[in-house]
Task: structure prediction
Amino acid sequence: MKIGIFSHCTIDQIKIGADSYERPGGPACYCGIAARKLGFDVELFTKFGPDFTFTNELLKNKIKFDDALSNQPTTKFTLEIKDAERNLWLESVCEKIPYSDSDADGVLVSPVFDEISKEVLDKIKKNSDMTFLDPQGFLRRTDSQKKIFLDRTEIDLSKITAIKSDPNEVQSLTGLAGMAGVLDLQKRGVEHILYTNKRDVSLLSKNRLYSIQLPNMDINDTSGVGDIFTAAFCCTLLKERDVLWAFSFAGGAAQAALESKQIGLDKVPTKGEVQTNAAYYYNMMKFTDV
Result:
């Protein structure tokens, strides 16, 4: 099976305490490699500049990325990470990603900062049987110091198969907090809503809210964990058509990534590392009617 991913490859300057690491990043990299480790073919729709020196990471994972090279610098972030909290600063932005047709079984739209227009999103939804959305890049703005913050943004969410959002993103999308915002996303046409609040992770599907809790652990680098979670959910739902197993697999992937203690893309887990965790979550999952 094949998944298409619309997102910028990024250069991430990751600062953890006194240490600093420059790594390739963005959902294009994290989701792409996670999907490959789950046995999917991956077609990236992305842009990066001549300063992106990490294309070997994509090539060795047999990820397709035609027409990706831009004359503009690669989108670059500085990330300061402390436990589960992080702050981001935008250093540069590459050119926008145009619409392209894809024969993928499903498409994940996961912008990092304004690289995908709402018109491109509309075309993707029109031409894809299953469209997954991580809306963070539609919501992000920068202050005078180039620090990232989220702002209230209207997005047409009709025909979205699944969305992943945290409390701040739900507030920015709906103007409502917590479960009121999650239920509003459902009313707007989203089939499955993944709601991630640090260790507490929920799925709203039809009239039920399912929940799991990630283990309490010492956290090193959280960059890309949300992307790994999203890719695991998308690929498993596409292949198995079982939303609860997809939810369990997503939680299992996030746990395996965090437990690795690795920096950057090295934390992307193998399928085998995910499966044991997924089986645990599937059996321990709680639910309530809403």
